[in-house]
Amino acid sequence: MVSSKDVAKYAGVSQTTVSRVVNTPNLVKEPTYRKVMAAIDELNYIPDGNARSLVQKRSDTIALISGPLYNPFFVETTTSIVNYANEHGFKINVHFSNDENIEEIYNAIFEKKVDGIILSSVLLEDPVFAKLEKSGIPFILYNRKHESNKNFVEMDNEQAGFLATDYLFSLNHDEVCWIGGPTEMSTFKGRYDGFLKAFQKNNTAINPEKIFIGNTSKENLYQTFLKLEELSEKPTAICAATDAIAIQMMDFYISAGYKVPEDISIIGIDNVKIGQHASINLTTVGISSPIDLGRIAIEKLIKMIQQKNKPCVQITEAVRLFERKTIIKKKKEA
C-alpha cells in the first residue's frame, strides 16, 4: 500500500509537506500543492485514516454525497438513505455538493474511515471514478451513471425524457421548450436524448431558441424565464428535466400573472412528493417503483459492504407518466 513517504519521495518533498497538503492545503504554496497532488493522484495514495479502515474493524459509517438541497429529489432521497442506513446500524456522513465544493468533499471522504460511499455527483467522464475503484471502498452511484457502466442505480432517463415530450405532442403542443442541466451528467443527457427522440418520432423540427441547457439554480432559471418572455413565438409547453425546474418555472410564470396550464403547460421528471401536493399537482414522469432511487441504492450498498465478493450493480428503473393538472390540451388552429 502506498504511504505518505512514497508520495514525499515521488514529489521530492518532505513527509511533513505531504501531511500539510492533505490536512491544511491553505498553508501550502500553490506550486508545492500542485506537485504533491499530482504525486498523490499518480500513486493513488489514500491518507492513513482511510487506509487503516481497509484492514481494521469496520467503522459502521457510510459517506453520502448528495445533490443540492434546492432540488426536492435530493431532500427525499437523502432522508431515505439516512433512515435505512440508521435502521441497519450505520451512521451517515452527509455532504451536499455543488460545482464549487466537490473536490473538497472528495478529499474529506478519502481521508476518513468509512465502510462505503453512496454518491450522486459523478459525471459521465469523471476521473474520480477510477479513484473510487482503486480505493477498495464499496461504492454506488444513484441518479447518476459513469461511462464505465458500473455500480449505479438510475431511472430510465432517456425513456423519461421521451415520455414527457411525446405526451406534450399528443396534446397538440408543437412549440415545446426544453430546460435542463449540463449533459456531462448522465441524468440530464439521457433525458435530453429522450426529448430529441420524441421530436424525431413526431417529425418536428427543434427550435434552438427554445433549448436551455446549463446551471439550474434559481437565479439562472429566472434568466431563462426572461429569455422566454422575449421570444416573439413563445412556447405553449415546457418540458423540464427535473420537477425542481418545473416547479420553479411555475412560480416564475404564476408570479408574472400567467395561469398554469391555461397559458403555459409544464411537465417535469422525477415525481417528487412536493409536486404531488394538491396546490401544485405537477404532471411528471417518475419511476414505476414505490421505492425511491436513494433507498434502492443504499440497500445495494449495504449488501456490498457485507459481502466478500462485491457484485457490480447495474439497475435502471422503469418509468411511467403521472398525469395531473399542469398540462392542458392545446386547441388545433382552424
Automatic annotation (TrEMBL):
The keyword DNA repair does not apply. SMART domains: HTH_LACI (SM00354). Pfam families: LacI (PF00356), Peripla_BP_3 (PF13377). One of its GO terms (molecular function) is transcription cis-regulatory region binding. The keyword DNA-binding applies. Residues 2-56 form the HTH lacI-type domain. Keywords: DNA-binding, Transcription, Transcription regulation. InterPro entries: HTH_LacI (IPR000843), LacI/GalR-like_sensor (IPR046335), Lambda_DNA-bd_dom_sf (IPR010982), Peripla_BP_I (IPR028082). This is LacI family transcriptional regulator. It comes from Planococcus halocryophilus.
